Amino acid sequence: MKAALDRRLGAFGAALRRHAGLIRRLQWAVVLLYAVLLVIPAWLPLPEGQARLLDNLTLLAQFVFWGLWWPFVLLSVVLFGRLWCGLLCPEGALSEWASRHGRGGGVPRWMRWGGWPTLGFLLTTLYGQLISVYDYAQAALLILGGSTLAAMLVGWLYGRGKRVWCRYLCPVSGVFALLAKLAPMHFRVDEQRWQANPPPHLPPPNCAPLLDIRRMRSASACHACGRCSGQRDAVRLIARSGSEEIVRFGNAPDNRWEVILLLYGVIGLAMGAFQWTLSPWFIALKQTLAEWLVEHGQLWLLQADAPWWLLTHYPQLNDAFTWLDGLGICLYLGGSALLLGGGLHLLLHAGARLAGRSLQFTRHLALCLVPTGAAGLFLGLSATTVKLLRYEGLELLWVGQARVALLALAMAWSLWLGWRVSAALPGWRRAAPVGALLLGNALIGYGWWLQFWGW
């Protein structure tokens, strides 16, 4: 059965290479749709209370971007790898196009720093909450449009027909790289066949994300565009276990930033971003700060006079953040990242130490939380999908059970990964890291219980 599936996947990969021109035209169609839905709503009047998805372009764009695109692109990465990046992403396509017509400079050393995607995700997530990016078209244009312009500028400055932005700077590339580790398909490279294969060879492919194809083992950075499929008869799209990459290659020595992004960003900061509008802890924090400000005569922080591009400011809809709101959001999200991410880090480190293992094993163990982190992102983002559909009158009574099932499956997968990763440990020592993972998953699950049922 796997052989038949591999043949079909291999044929699909070969078709991607064969129909590269068709894929480029598809990318430009996506770019056009992206531009229409991003730019036009920002110049339209704000939707009135009785407006609906099908009769208001602003609401339709909001649903497409935040109700469909963002959650289901993440789901597609888990299912198919970074196929979105290679085939459909408008930002990547525009960056590559700009690179083909730009200066063609070399990638500077500072840009190769591995922490940029992590820092970009943290700052973009925080900024998006401050300006209510999920709710207003102007905020979406500022963040998504600004990111697209930056991608094009980087493409024009560096590389020749490459996606330098996607490889080193894109704020979501780190998240996609983590989630792609779970994909049940990838382009496998047989390095021995690559070296042994005699000429003639197919023309060298243009690997836009600047990968060393011959030595590629991970699906994390691969955009799954198919341009290298069949190269030297050594590159094939095949099926694999979704657990394979984390179990076999999760102990790579250069995964420090991946672990930081996972624990403090994908799990810690993201949960705070999804929770703060419902959290009684956030309200208590704001009240405490407000009382202190009044007592000390610092009333300017209670004013709602910030521009919309700094803090949400739409007084015509009775939606305007005070400076205190902005401070509270920063503190709450920062606290969520540090407390939840740091707590998980300490738990996993303790489990590794009890098992007599090193810091590298802690990082390997942390990657076992990728399924739980991915499920959390999907649950949090799809909450916008559910909210918008319920505004349209759909009850969606099954959503609660689906959320429980998804969380349970993700946690079970996480524990299975931990069991496999610690397989070399003898006897009771294996229980320590698996127990740490169990406690970590329970902590994350408690956070989602508060989000959807407790508050």
Give, in order, the helices and strands. HHHHHHHHHEHEHHHEEHHHHH
Strand percentage lies at under 5%
Query: Which secondary-structure class do the elements indicate?
Result: mainly alpha
**Shape by Cα distribution:** globular
The helix tally amounts to 18
Average pLDDT works out at 93
Q: What portion of residues is helical?
A: 55-70%
**Biggest β-sheet description:** 2 strands, antiparallel
Q: How far is the N terminus from the C terminus?
A: 47 Å
The tally of structural domains comes to 2
Count all strands and give the number: 4
**Low-confidence parts, pLDDT < 50 over ≥5 residues?**
none
Protein name: 4Fe-4S binding protein
Domain 4Fe-4S ferredoxin-type: 64-103, 150-187
Organism: Aquipseudomonas alcaligenes (Pseudomonas alcaligenes)
Main location: membrane
What does this 3D model show about the protein?
It is a single chain. The chain is mainly α and 455 residues long. The protein has 2 domains: 2-179, no CATH class; 256-454, no CATH class. Helix content is 62%, strand content 3%. It contains 18 helices and 4 strands. Strands 1-2 form a two-stranded antiparallel ribbon. It has a two-stranded antiparallel sheet with strand order 3-4. A hairpin with a 4-residue loop joins strand 3 and strand 4 (319-320). Helix 14 (323-354) packs antiparallel against helix 18 (431-454). The chain crosses the membrane at residues 26-44, 64-89, 110-130, 136-158, 261-283, 326-352, 364-384, 396-419, 431-449. It holds the Pfam family Fer4_5. It is found in: Cell membrane. Residues 64-103, 150-187 form the 4Fe-4S ferredoxin-type domain.
